[in-house]
Specification:
This protein is of the alpha+beta class and 100 residues long. The chain has 2 domains: 49 residues, Single Sheet (Ubiquitin Ligase Nedd4, Chain: W); 38 residues, Orthogonal Bundle (Helicase, Ruva Protein, domain 3), CATH 1.10.8. It has 3 helices and 6 strands. The strands form 2 sheets. Strands 1-4-5 form a 3-stranded antiparallel sheet, with no helix packed on it. A hairpin with a 2-residue loop joins strand 2 and strand 3. Helix 2 crosses helix 3.
Length: 100
């Protein structure tokens, strides 16, 4: 590998690796990590079994107020239904309107 200009280094004592994505996090609690450098570019290789933790849905306060105003429910009730509908304002309004 040295003839090709490649340097490989094992990274020791890795306790955790987390990869953040909009949909959630991939968490490697134990992993083997290698750093490979070739032509000035370093690439990291991770070997292990990740677990996935989905991202928590963030409901904007403006959406909560809009649904509450449109349906006459409390903001707490509006946020609960918005969470159930994964932030879909129209669906939340329809669900709350049907319960009148």
């Amino acid at each position: 590998m040295k003839q090709l200009g490649m340097k490989v280094e094992q990274i020791e004592d890795v306790s955790q690796i987390v990869i953040f994505t909009p949909k959630g996090q991939y968490i490697f609690d134990t992993a083997e990590v290698s750093a490979m450098t070739m032509q000035g570019v370093t690439t990291y290789q991770v070997i292990g079994d990740p677990r996935f933790e989905p991202a928590e849905l963030e409901i904007p306060a403006d959406d909560v107020r809009l649904v509450a105003d449109q349906t006459g429910v409390t903001e707490e009730a509006a946020k609960k239904v918005l969470t159930e509908t994964k932030g879909d304002i129209a669906d939340a309004i329809m669900r709350l309107s049907l319960h009148d």
